[in-house]
From TrEMBL, chain A:
Biological processes annotated in GO: aerobic respiration
Organism of origin: Mucilaginibacter oryzae
Keyword line: 4Fe-4S, Cell membrane, Iron, Iron-sulfur, Membrane, Metal-binding, NAD, Quinone, Repeat, Translocase, Ubiquinone
Protein name: NADH-quinone oxidoreductase subunit I
Similarity remark: Belongs to the complex I 23 kDa subunit family.
Bilayer topology: Peripheral membrane protein
GO cellular component assignments: plasma membrane
PANTHER family the UniProt entry points to: NADH DEHYDROGENASE [UBIQUINONE] IRON-SULFUR PROTEIN 8, MITOCHONDRIAL, NADH DEHYDROGENASE UBIQUINONE IRON-SULFUR PROTEIN 8, MITOCHONDRIAL
Lineage: Bacteria, Pseudomonadati, Bacteroidota, Sphingobacteriia, Sphingobacteriales
UniProtKB/TrEMBL annotation, chain B:
Organism for this UniProt entry: Mucilaginibacter oryzae
Free-text function comment from the UniProt entry: NDH-1 shuttles electrons from NADH, via FMN and iron-sulfur (Fe-S) centers, to quinones in the respiratory chain. The immediate electron acceptor for the enzyme in this species is believed to be ubiquinone. Couples the redox reaction to proton translocation (for every two electrons transferred, four hydrogen ions are translocated across the cytoplasmic membrane), and thus conserves the redox energy in a proton gradient. This subunit may bind ubiquinone.
An annotated GO BP: aerobic respiration
Protein's UniProt name: NADH-quinone oxidoreductase subunit H
A Gene Ontology molecular function term of the record: oxidoreductase activity, acting on NAD(P)H, quinone or similar compound as acceptor
Organism classification: Bacteria, Pseudomonadati, Bacteroidota, Sphingobacteriia, Sphingobacteriales
Assigned GO CC terms: plasma membrane
Matching InterPro entries: NADH_UbQ_OxRdtase_su1/FPO, NADH_UbQ_OxRdtase_su1_CS
This protein's UniProt keywords: Cell membrane, Membrane, NAD, Quinone, Translocase, Transmembrane, Transmembrane helix, Ubiquinone
Originating gene: nuoH
UniProtKB/TrEMBL annotation, chain C:
Name by which UniProt lists this protein: NADH-quinone oxidoreductase subunit J
Principal localisation: membrane
Family: Belongs to the complex I subunit 6 family.
Segments crossing the lipid bilayer: 6-21, 28-45, 51-73, 85-106, 136-158
The keyword Metal-binding is assigned to this record: no
Gene3D superfamilies membership: NADH-ubiquinone/plastoquinone oxidoreductase chain 6, subunit NuoJ (1.20.120.1200)
Entry's localization field: Cell membrane
PANTHER family: NADH-UBIQUINONE OXIDOREDUCTASE CHAIN 6 (PTHR33269)
Molecular functions per Gene Ontology: NADH dehydrogenase (ubiquinone) activity; quinone binding
Record's function text: NDH-1 shuttles electrons from NADH, via FMN and iron-sulfur (Fe-S) centers, to quinones in the respiratory chain. Couples the redox reaction to proton translocation (for every two electrons transferred, four hydrogen ions are translocated across the cytoplasmic membrane), and thus conserves the redox energy in a proton gradient.
EC class (word): translocase
Amino acid sequence: MEPLSNKRKVLEVKPLNFLERAYLPAIVGGLSTTMKHFFKKPVTISYPEEKREFSENFRGMHSLKRDEEGRERCTACGLCALSCPAEAITMTAAERQKGEEHLYREEKYAAVYEINMLRCIFCGLCEEACPKEAIYLDGDIVPADYLRKDFIYGKDKLVEAPLNQ
Amino acid sequence: METPQLIFSIVLIVVIFLISLVVAMYSTYAERKVAAFFQDRIGPNRAGPWGILQPLADGGKMFLKEEIIPTNATGFLFIVGPSLAILTACIGSAVIPWGSAIQIGGHTFDLQVTDINVGILYIFGVVSLGVYGIMIGGWASNNKYSLLGAIRAASQNISYEISMGLSIIALLMLTGTLSLKEIAEQQHSWHWNVIRQPLGFLLFLVCAFAETNRSPFDLPECETELVGGYHTEYSSMKLGFYLFAEYINMFISSAVMATLYWGGYNYPGMDWVAAHTGPTVAPIIGVVVLFAKIFFSIFFFMWVRWTIPRFRYDQLMDLGWKILIPLAIANIVLTGVGSTLLTHFGY
Amino acid sequence: MITFYFIAFLSIFFSILVISAKNPVHSILYLILTFFTFTIHYILLNAQFLAIVNFIVYMGAILVLFLYTLMLINLNKDSEPVKPFMVKLAGVVGGGILAVAIASSLKLLGTSNPVLLQNPDLGLVKNLGKVLFDEFLLPFEVSSVLLLSAMVGAVLLATKEKEPKAA
């Protein structure tokens, strides 16, 4: 067949000479290669104690942000849930009562906000969709757990800690 | 046998038994660590500092696993298999001289359980018996893969026993005795047999790898072809016994290799040390030296395992029958001619 | 003496089990045990070399090969050939004649003088080697020639002659 490129190299298979047939030099060579690796620094990162640096645009666990006065930014508009391709987000909206102005920035807020971490694909579309800059995927890796129900994260796990604490 | 020596022998048996078990236990740990280092990893490091409690954790796990005996297995032989494997692995240590005679409180004791005058042949017999554990277990499992593993083990062991025996014969022509104790004594200071028998040692080494079913000759448990090999159907501590037997075998064959070829408990400058430390401490140093040799040999087993890929089955048989046996016979002839010429010219 | 009787009883017991076991693999395993008791007999007779050779060669090699072959053959009830009655009868008659021959020969010999060993350490390697390669050199070498010819014969039987292909 006509070669498509000129990169083809025809290898000439020679019969092995005595030293090659005896295998011992090859075995010794192999042993020295492994011995070199024996003294190399291990590449392992012992995970829970050591962590690999995340890249700048790493998307981890979600957090619901607060504004500079410590009020929740989310207004429960539902755009994140709508944009979510995995349908991982649900929420229930509620009206802000008198005296709760220091808690919620907008007049409407999310009374329940749940993300199913088993459904979430960490695409970041919720982040893009949010008009209030309330949700960011800037957290850690979502930890493992034993039960499916424990992967549905509510507001207790998602909302950022209050400012002055 | 006098009473103190008898008591000492019993103590020695117990101690050696415990040592071989501990060495085998920590060989599993060492194997994992060594493998990790060869592959630029860390290895087990969770159980205890540096993971040194890992063997205990493994043992505990093995004991607590569910005991499964397949319905179609031959029940009694299914249990006999692993028991025989570990029994034959353990009894090999009886004739190995662990050190020269030691003096404690005015009595002189031999650091050897028994010095039978056919010591090498005893080791050889025990090794050849070792295959029964695998064969019986593999057959009793009533499983194709187990049976194939057992058959592979049998043919491999028989094939390599021949060249192993022939390589030992060349050694025996030089030593003129079958007693391991005398062989060890002949290699005083630096007169190690490996200097006189380099080819014989190489052949013995290859055969030792094959006899202990270690990589690159671990075809009886070749995962890619035979699932788990002869121990496919085994679980719990019965599997543990099979794995354990492999490591004890490795320990014993390392000890035999060290005694036959690497001078046993002898080391250069031992006379000077003996003169300066007295008849109690000097033998202990000898024992330490022997164990250093054994541990290096075990390390070498592991080093090879993580370097050389497994043979194909026909290559294994070719190597055994067409290369090792002729080489071993050539070695016998060379040894005979050499020693005759040397004595003729008066060396 | 008690040890001897015990071991002798065991060897007879196991050898009976060899022929009475239904499963051929079991009967091989009993044969291994029988050979093991033989090894103990040799040790009792102070023939260490013979004991260990019996151990290595018979237990360690030959019986492994037996077991190996039997494991490869699928032996079960269906594949067992049904022997005709005449063969069974011939077997019984032959066995009976053999028993009579052995009994009569034993009776003819009577109680021979117990063999007195001049050297009780004859069974040790050194003495045995000296006797074998000195006094009995010729029979020893002849037997090795016999083994060699048997091996050549086996190889000859195993290699199939290439039939000339008729065109």
